[in-house]
Write a structure and sequence with these properties.
This protein has 95 residues and is mainly β. The protein has no helices and eight strands. The chain is elongated. The termini are far apart.
Amino acid sequence: MSVMIQLPLDIPEVKVLSTECQPDGTLLIKVESTRQGTCCSRCGREIHQFHGYDRPIQLRHLPILERRVYLEFGPSGIGAPIARGGRRRPSGVTV
């Protein structure tokens, strides 16, 4: 008999897509960001143009009921089309 327990992650702007219990007892929680945009790391502008996902990343989270927990997400590729070339300041703003 399987039992379902729901626990909030309490991570802002993150939506849980699915959960899996691996054969070794590890919990894998697949998540995605609900943010609609971000700041370009090259020019600093607010951008919303989506280019796709990179390969999934797994991060270790705090244990739940003495089980290892990993969060998996696919980082989204978002970029400003005009942010090409130029020098980068330490803050990430192109000059």
